[in-house]
Amino acid sequence: MKNKVTILVILMLVLISFSGCIASVPTGSVPEIVEPGNGEVKNPSAPNEDLQTDTGKYVGQIDNNFIEIMISGVPEEMAYRSFMLSPELRDRFEALGLDTDMEVKFQFYENSQGQWVVVDIQII
What we know:
Helix content: 10-25%
Number of helices: 3
Radius of gyration: 24 Å
Largest sheet: 5 strands, mixed, barrel
Strand order of the largest sheet: 3-4-5-7-6
CATH superfamily of the largest domain: Copper binding periplasmic protein CusF
Structural class: alpha+beta
Strand content: 25-35%
Oligomer: single chain
Number of strands: 7
């Protein structure tokens, strides 16, 4: 009986000590994400601060929300990427008149779901 009580007390102490290891984020705040290796800090609610610019060949439109671009300067097996169109770009995308294999310059960011979102695209 004494051994069971001792084991129960030890188990409770271990559980209590682990409960203090959980970090909480205050309600209403947005956590910052630090990319490993480069020290760059991203704030998911402010994508304009994290815009990247790249060039490549426009492959085509997958559907109303996504396009595919072959990124320049990347090995071919890794160069093809799909990008989501931002709502603003989606509204004017048809007017751009892009055709397959056109060289483009585009600005994009990674959203909180890990999707690359194009906010601007230009024919070069």
